[in-house]
Design brief:
- 33% of the residues lie in helices and 23% in strands.
- With 535 residues, the chain is an alpha+beta fold.
- It has three domains: 182 residues, FAD/NAD(P)-binding domain (3-Layer(bba) Sandwich), CATH 3.50.50.60; 162 residues, D-Amino Acid Oxidase, Chain A, domain 2 (2-Layer Sandwich); 90 residues, no CATH class.
- The strands form three sheets. Strands 3, 4, 5, 6, 11, 12, 13, 14, 15 and 16 form a ten-stranded mixed beta sheet that branches.
- Strand 1, helix 2 and strand 2 form a beta-alpha-beta unit.
- Helix 2 packs parallel to helix 7, helix 12 packs across helix 15 and helix 15 packs antiparallel against helix 16.
């Protein structure tokens, strides 16, 4: 197997210091920005991407881990969004089978009308998927439902409906996008903050960025700048507006209304099987999931408006109470606060209509929006992980329409396999692999060849995996390793904290950079924090 590209920081920063003219400079290393970087690099454009923190640090590592067409969007009548998402779901499962796989769900029914009602909707979901379907919807009796969901509450259970969607490892998929873009020549740097926009004749001509680790600034020349910073896109838009304040335009109006989604992780025994549980409509109309993931179960999620944009948002007490209360209505054993292994929160960048105050995020658009300012700043936000590739194509289409770049090879990423996919396979199986290595795909052999391959720090995390992350996966800090290269922080925050000193020592050996162990220990406490404040 070919040796993977090195992500040694000195080499990356050295490339950034060269006075090159890029075709596209991207600000933001989440799903959207990385998707644009890969699509553009695969088309042969010269691409640079900067991210102020780690790749997927924000929303893109905090999803419900589902690759889905959006059953609830079907109920809202948004057929076009569902069709696009179902199509992209198939594409994602094909291009990253080591990171995304089909997952069966069961909608348990406790009232007589629920089976025919939800069954009809999910059958329509199948019809919309067509050849992209992952499995046929099935109607289940009471025992059939309990066979698939041993942890479901049996009292009053009538039956259920089984359907199929997809599941993935979001942070590692983001990393695969970054590394695949790099194999096509893109330069990507985490911990590199965009501080200013450059202009020539009133038009965007690049940006200025700062290496967060050294505080050294670099100037980047680029024909096109894409603002893909998720919930934080308005900050760069305001900089662009301020730089052009003398042209008579009105002040930049915010386009994002953030919505907070909380997820709670508990032990696998609460669900008891390998099938997800989905409740289409809880007491307040929200969707509830119980999703098996990497040996644990994710319970969620909420949809709460926020007016601030913290990097590490905290769950509110009423959000945690809601998830525990509603889960207890459908699980044989009701989870309590004492059962929580980790609590994590993500901010969704919902697109805000110009006449909307942003208070009711449940009715805001889940679709993405691409705007181009008069100076040429391209901003993209909204959407969801499943449609990241389609979003990237739309961004490049818009850039070409505005003559910022030329049109080239649209659709090149439709069948572009990501780093780690073994050549010539349509599916990837983790059978026989040691725990934790399945997400490396074909690269698991390279990981096992490194020092420490047989030294397991805990089940699912070896010394060799830490070394691989430092050498080939852009990892700098303990948080990079334990939150996103490994998902330990999201699965068991207490265990992650206990591993921090060992992981920090290994990273220091490999990179020579401060691994920030103390910062991670503080963060891990937050992921175990029981909220005391209401929203």
């Amino acid at each position: 197997m070919t040796e993977p590209l090195s992500t040694q920081r000195n080499s990356l920063v050295s490339r950034l210091s060269h006075d090159l003219a890029y075709d596209i400079a991207i600000v933001g290393g989440g799903a959207t920005g990385l998707g644009v970087a890969l699509d553009a690099a695969a088309r042969g454009f010269r691409v640079v991407l900067v991210e102020s923190d780690d790749f997927a640090k924000g929303t893109s590592s905090r999803a419900t881990k589902l690759v889905h067409g959006g059953v609830r969007y079907l109920a809202q009548g948004n057929i076009s969004l569902v069709r696009e998402a179902l199509r992209e779901r198939t594409t994602l499962l094909h291009n990253a089978p080591h990171l995304a796989q089909p997952l069966a769900f069961v909608v348990p029914s406790y009232q007589w009308w629920e089976i025919p009602f939800y069954g009809a909707g999910l059958t329509a979901y199948d019809l919309l998927a067509g050849k992209s379907g992952l499995g046929k919807t099935e109607f289940l009796g009471r025992q059939g439902t309990l066979d698939l969901l041993p942890g479901a509450l049996p009292d009053g259970l009538i039956g259920g409906v089984k359907y199929w969607d997809g599941q993935f490892n979001d942070a590692r998929l983001a990393l695969a996008l970054a590394r695949t873009a790099a194999t096509h020549g893109a330069l990507l740097l985490n911990y590199c903050r965009a501080t200013e926009l450059r202009y020539e004749g009133g038009r965007i001509s690049g940006l200025v960025c700062e290496d967060v680790l050294t505080e050294k600034s670099y100037s980047i020349r680029s024909r096109c700048v894409v603002n893909a910073t998720g919930v934080w896109v308005d900050a760069l838009r305001e900089k662009d507006g301020a730089a052009n304040a003398n042209d008579g335009r009105r002040p930049t109006k915010p386009m994002v209304a953030p919505s907070q989604g909380v997820h709670i992780v508990v032990d696998r025994e609460f669900l008891g099987g390998d099938v997800g549980l989905m409740v289409p409509k809880t007491a307040d109309g929200r969707v509830l999931f119980a999703v098996p993931w990497l040996g644990k179960v994710i319970l969620g999620t909420t949809d709460t408006p926020r007016h601030d944009l913290p990097r590490e948002p905290l769950a509110f007490k009423d959000e945690v109470d809601f998830i525990l209360r509603e889960s207890g209505r459908y699980l044989r054993r009701a989870p309590t606060r004492a059962d929580i292994k980790s609590i994590w929160v993500g901010l969704r960048p919902l697109v805000k209509p110009q006449d909307d105050d942003g208070e009711n995020t449940k009715v805001l658009s889940r679709e993405h929006t691409v705007l181009v300012s008069r100076s040429g700043l391209v901003t993209v936000t909204g959407g969801k992980w499943t449609t990241y590739r389609a979003m990237a194509e739309d961004v490049l289409d818009r850039c070409a329409t505005k003559q910022l770049i030329e049109r080239r090879n649209k659709g090149v990423t439709t069948r572009l396999r990501l780093v780690g996919v073994p050549a010539g396979i349509s599916e990837f199986t983790s059978i026989g692999l040691p725990e934790g290595l399945h997400s490396y795909g074909a690269e698991q052999l390279l990981v096992q060849a490194l020092p420490g391959a047989t030294h397991w720090l805990c089940p699912g995390l070896s010394e060799a995996m830490v070394r691989f992350a430092a050498r080939h996966e852009y990892a700098v800090t303990v948080e990079d390793m334990l939150a996103r290269r490994s998902r330990m922080l999201f699965l068991d925050a207490g265990l992650a904290a206990s591993l921090a000193p060992q992981v920090g020592a290994l990273l220091m050996q490999e990179t020579g950079l401060p691994p920030k162990v103390a910062d991670f220990l503080t963060l891990a406490k937050q992921y175990l924090q029981v909220p005391v404040h209401s929203s």
